[in-house]
Amino acid sequence: MEDDVQSIAKSLPIGQPLRFRYLLFLWPLLWDRFIRTGAREVLEEASKYFQKATREDEEAESEYKEGIDLLKDCQRGKGDSEDLEDCISMLKRSLELRPPTHPIRTTSLGTLASALFLKYEKTGSLPCLDQAISLRREALALRSSPFPATGRSLCLHNLAQCLSTSFDARECVADLEEAIQLQKEAVALRPAPNKKRPLALTILAIALRQSFTVTNDPEELDESMSCCREALELMPHSDSGRTTTLGNLGTALRARFETKGSTEDLEEMVRMAEQALEMDYLAERSSQFSKMHNLGVALTTRFERKGDVRDLERAINLFRGALEHPPAHGPAERAFAFGSLASALGSRFELTGSASDLSESISQFEKALKVEGISQRTMAGSMTNLGESLRKRYETTGKVTDLDRAFELLQQALELRSPNDRNRPKTMTALALLHRTMYQQRGDFSSLEEAVQLHRAVCKSRPLNHPERPYSLSNLALTLKERFDEKREEADLEEAISTLQEALSISADDSKNQVLILNNLALVLRDRFNNYADRDDLNAAVAHLWKADNLTPDASIRKSGTTLNLAVSLQFLFKETGHTDLATCDQSIDLLKKALDLCPPPHVDRISRLHSLAGAFSTRWAATSDQGNRTLALEYFRQASTYEPGHILLRLKYTKDWANFARSINDPSELEAYSISMDLLPSFASLELPVKRRQAVLSQIKDIACDAAKCAISYGNLELAAVFLSTGRSVFWSQALQLRPPLGNLEAKSPELAQRFRAASQKLEKSAYEDSDSSSKPSNLSFDSMSTARSLVDDWQQVLTEIRALEGFETFLRPKTFDELQESASNGPVVLLTSSLNGSDALIVTTEGVKHIPYPQLEYHHLATYAELFTEFLSATGEGSKKLTENQVMQLEILQQETRGARPAQGRNVMNLDQRFKSLLKTIWMAIVRPIVVALGLSKSTNPPRLWWCPTGLFVFLPLHAAGIYGESTRAECLTDYAISSYCTSLQDLLHPPLEPDPQFKLLAVIQPEAVRGSNLPMTLKELEKIEAHLPSPVDKHLVKQVGTKSSPTTVDEVLTGLTEATIAHFGCHGKQNTMNPLQSCLLLSGGELSMSRIIRCQTSKATLAYLSACETAKSDDASPDESMHLAATMMFAGFRGVVGTLCEIRDEDAPVIADGFYRHLFLRRNSNGDIAPDAKDAAAALHFAVKKLRDDGKEIRRWIPYVHFGI
């Protein structure tokens, strides 16, 4: 055989790779013969062939040796990036000199792959990782199965390690699955007592643990731990690789603890990390990064379970120490370390409230996000952690931009989490907590609903033995409690209690979550006590809170919360004893002062401590009549109401509490409290919110303006009361109009600022309407829309500030003074009607001032009954509804007696629908409207003067314009005999006069005789005929017809385009009110729905009058009556100065009659040239006489009462 090999080697030319292989193969053959024979000449011959082989591979070997020396330096941390690049270049040249048939090409492949892998670890370069994988694959292919097991096992191991790393970077499950299979084969090729078996087992353990993060299969985690344990048994204690295996076992133990909650796993994890770090110190290794980090994580995990602060402090020091060393395995490790330090600092902040800890925590999370080359999973974790920290800082400082950024990060993090990601629940929890904070900030109920859904999903994903399940259950329960506070549904409260009881039963006694659970359980038990007055619930709540307070260290930031809850519960006990146990009250006050001291400014939650102290001192004042308690109560109410970092919704609630207390003791600060409330209103429904969300939050404060006005009236400040009503009514429209003010004066002063303001307003308005086309309930906002809107608001405010700096523009867009609002009465008196639980009143605004008309006998429940009956009468249809129910008769009798009206003329159960209306209208006349007529000194007239109604609260739902006594010939009188009625949503509606009458006017008639939904409306064509009959000739010059049919539908865009050019717009079609989302109330066209949200975007400079001959176009929204969320108000916002609308459904056959009378009167006016020029100011009179014609014809009240006029 030797001779054959020698003969072949000599026959091959120098440089041929096969020649090198045979020369190299001769060396062991000749060496073996030398051992057998001892012949020296054989040894010399073997040496000769070895030297020949070496000389022929000299260049490749030279490059290889230099490259591997540099690689070793880089692996030890001695070389820099330039050295690594040189190393890779040399190894690449060496590989090029060793083609696929070269006998030691496999070695070159492996070494170059190692260099490229090291570069990936240092830079995160995925192309380098991909090249390393490719080289490892080629090396494995060269080590086919017949090759010796040792060499193949090493190749399998190296490729598996690269694929595992690729999975970390890309989360490609196929990479991980292949890595596991390769590594299992590598382990099989290294049976015990093979020295390399422990390393192979460790790498397999890592891959299996990685797979567990994807599959959540506990068997994979158990197998991973078994591999680690076997590896440790096979390793000598001095083996440097033991530290890596200990670290991996500790990580696996932590994963199992997080799944099953075993204390044994927790303690063993810490022991493993301790052993690993001790071995590192004994070996004096230069890098301590991974081991210090692993022990820090283990200690942090134990702290989270047991709450031992010493674990937390040591963990922080270990994380800081780890970051002083370079990571051993790429950028992801460094990102983890930044995140771990940040989390630990955040935990310490929760204990101590140290602002510097929170600030540094956020800074470290920011660093983690900036690390390049980290995986999607790592990125999601960093985003989640940073989002949580920003939320905490917001709750401490009230900085709204933190809330915005947190929302952005958590939404993105959730998108990065796959459905099977075991950390997805953590991100969902963080997002749920943020939604709850947003609800507390704005009172937006949709945010609370989203929080409930997220918390439910998290609890569903947590098995019974999961250590985080108690915390998740507690979060869900607290959110359910808040929903109960909002909706008062008993099921929410009971579920909250049972959920917390489960959480407490599975929470370990040494768990730091126990304080949170005890707190929350006490709160819901206290709520149940409030509802059912079961003293056992209150006693249990107090007991839980004493335990929670004792378990919470004084240095903990949570101490303030537990102390507050305990103090408030003691106040409940004090009240339950009939205010006799002053010791309990004093103990409560002492605890409240402590809670306040533990929550210094500018912490957001300080406001609740101030308010609770106000409540405690007001209670003590009631028990003792001590003037000092009275003074302190008022002072704390004032501090709570003016505490700017506090949530604005809380400030509004607390000003109401202040006002109520001040009124109970006849203290004039009641007016101060309401003044603060009114100043807060515009900020509550900020322009940064889309219109749908703004409308939703305004429903939370629907009574505040009426209460404030009543207070001002009681102190004789009638002008301030009028301002309160004007400011607090139609906040939605008032804010929207700030984006569309007249800019003529500003154009003259500063064209540049006028243009900037116009551009900023248009951008902000466009942003606000982004979600308004949806027919769903108000939904959650994306971060992009929130942050964009906030930025646009900031830009708009900046321009506004510059405008107000101009001489003469200091009050530009500031709230109107009474002197300015009084101009609204220049064409006739305006009657402001207000009612609250404190009483009902009318304020008559005229050019001479304000006159007060009290309604001492008109109570809130009277108005509620009037509104209820009117709504029932309007909806009554068919024969079965023609008889008045006994209950309704009794209601009318009681109301008329209480408000000095006359009893119904008919006996019970004999009144038809028309008689019902007459009875109700008579009651309203006597109780509300007639006193106004008398106060104004009005007389019956065939050409009566104008009178505007600006109702608030429940008055909004009453037909004031139709009030009167009908059908009693000797006593018959009604408002229409004395005045022509119009309505306005606010005094501001009447401040700007319409355009001058234009003989070149355009009338847009949108007629829809064929209904896509509902019955056809053939009489709308008759309406059109009546309009054409009264238009001046030539009709085509003035009339733009859009007659929609099923075959030729009228589209929404066509109508909106027509509106921009129209002077008058007439709609003959179906209308629909959307009670769930008023912004989707609409006019039904044959080609679509023309909704409020679309009309709002329309802005016309030529509009003067809109006539909405459709159903429910002036019907107010029950949830926000003062916001005038109906189509008539929307048309006014779009630019029409007067609008004819309807309160309910109208009869198709009546529409042409009303239109005929209306346009006959409207087109009577001629200008000085004799041309017909309709004036919007004549619209109210035109409607007045048109309705009078229908009424005089003997039509039922239900047929003519719906028609109303709004505006000038």
Overview of this protein structure:
The chain is an alpha/beta fold and 1208 residues long. Among the domains are: 2-56, no CATH class; 462-551, Serine Threonine Protein Phosphatase 5, Tetratricopeptide repeat; 568-685, Alpha Horseshoe (Serine Threonine Protein Phosphatase 5, Tetratricopeptide repeat); 744-812; 823-988, no CATH class; 998-1207, Rossmann fold (3-Layer(aba) Sandwich), CATH 3.40.50. The longest helix is centred in the C-terminal third of the chain and has 24 residues, at 913-936.
Topology:
Layout: H1 2-11, H2 17-37, H3 40-56, H4 58-75, H5 81-96, H6 105-123, H7 126-142, H8 149-170, H9 173-188, H10 197-215, H11 218-234, H12 242-260, H13 263-283, H14 289-306, H15 309-322, H16 331-352, H17 355-370, H18 376-397, H19 400-416, H20 424-442, H21 445-461, H22 469-487, H23 490-506, H24 513-532, H25 535-551, H26 558-576, H27 582-597, H28 606-624, H29 627-641, H30 648-664, H31 669-684, H32 691-698, H33 704-714, H34 718-728, H35 731-737, H36 744-749, H37 751-768, H38 783-804, H39 818-821, E1 830-836, E2 839-846, E3 849-855, H40 860-875, H41 886-898, H42 913-936, E4 946-951, E5 964-965, E6 973-974, H43 975-978, E7 980-983, E8 1003-1007, H44 1019-1030, H45 1035-1038, E9 1039-1043, H46 1052-1061, E10 1064-1068, E11 1070-1072, E12 1082-1085, E13 1088-1091, H47 1092-1097, E14 1105-1109, H48 1127-1133, E15 1138-1142, H49 1151-1162, H50 1179-1192, H51 1197-1200, E16 1203-1207
Parallel strand pairs: 1-4, 4-7, 8-9, 8-10, 10-14, 14-15
Antiparallel strand pairs: 1-2, 2-3, 5-6, 11-12, 12-13, 15-16
